Amino acid sequence: MEEDGLVPARMINEYCYCPRLCYIEWVEGEFKDSADTVEGRFQHRRVDRASGSAPEREEEGKQHTTSMLLSSTKLGIVGRIDLVEFEGGRAVPIDYKKGRAPDVPEGAYEPERVQVCALALILRDNGLECDRAIIYFVGSKKRVEIKISEELVQRTKEAIVGVRSLQMMSSPPLPLLDSPKCRGCSLVSICLPDETNLLRGEDEEVRRMNPARDDFMPVYVLTEGAVVAKREGRLEVRKEGQKIADVPLHDVSQVALHGSASITTPALSELMQRGIPVQYFSHGGWFIGQTTGTFNKNVFLRIRQFEAAADKEESLVLARSFVQGKVKNCRTLLRRNDKEVEDALLSQLGNLAKLTGTARSLGELLGIEGAAAQLYFSRLGSLLKGADAPSFEDRNRRPPRDPVNAVLSYLYGILTKEWFVTLLAVGFDPYRGFYHQPRHGKPALALDMMEEFRPLVADSVAITLFNNEELSLNDFVITKQGTNLAPEGKRTVVRGFERRMNTEIAHPLFGYSISYRRIFEVQARLLARKLMGEIPEYPPFCTR
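The structure corresponding to this sequence follows.
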């Protein structure tokens, strides 16, 4: 119905509540469940089962029809009515709401009244008499009658026009200022109202993001030859017919298959329907690609992404931010943890961070990044304090020649995957970047966004694993050709990475504490806000 240009009645409700919410959910096609939305679906479970079409006019007595889908081409709206009460040719739409009836003179707030009015107008346009509607509040088990007055009809028609006008906008309406509506909104982590207003210079107080961390967790399958299958609402990992592990599907955020691990078609289909991505890695931990369900519908963001990527100056501005964030975080890591680092080296890194802001080309920026990396890696070995910690002289790869480089390469692969998943969820194309240039199979934007997090996440995890003696030489396969992690070593690195991703830290700009996984999403959405013109610049994440 929506493809035919009809406005859903529920979106009229959302528009009256918050036009920005309506735009994000309807035009951009983004949605995120909260406890309220899950409970709302549960409360609707009975009326969501359709019981048939409308009875004929001449039927006598009162009848009910549940989950009735009707549209009005005259008004250009469509709605699924939870329950319709019929008596002769007269109909009363009944809409279920999970909460309690509010203590207001009208009996319900305007968004709910406008929504049921839209449903009443749909019934009228389908030849039925309808002069009232009912909202049933499950929380208080109360029926509230809404009279379909001319005033309410006029407000509903204005709202329909308002929803349609959103389709003409290239970016969402600005967020509400310090509104209590934002606190309980399921899309607050997508909208980022306080964060956007702060960066626009319009609001100084940023309320804590809830939840601070993601309760859903990735599943890593590292056992060679293991098969992931679906069993009665759970994912099972088996090898040679023996169950290795299982996990409830509702707890899974993503599935990462390493080496020869595989997945059955029913399990893959179930994950795609649930919007859970499946990633594939090589034996050495290099991120290969991903299988996912319906792609994010926010085509406007991808249009802006490609326009910006084709603009050399706009790409350079963003690339400066990515590299500056990386260099600053490298300097901070050394300043905090290297007690013997010379002030001169820290000064050099500080100067290079400043130079990123005046780089005149991507080539010049690449040179600045290379100089900073050489200084940084020259001191990284001094951070390894464990009694049996291996030595580290310089960064090398393909293949890595020592245990530290093997761990860094493996972690960079996992970090690339994490950013790939985040960017897809937000609506970006991970393959079109601004700093890293397009190349077949290269997730350039994921590599862009992970730059500022290489020292904070990947390098920090590697240092911690060695210093805490969680890794030893027994966790590596060392040959003349190079060094790779053994299976148990990979599991140890993955555990360390997930521990870091779930660590809550204070956001340097917004003040509240959230996990690194949540920070990734916030940074991706801030990049989207910059591209859509809502904030003046992209703020890199620079730890204090």
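The chain has a mean pLDDT of 87.
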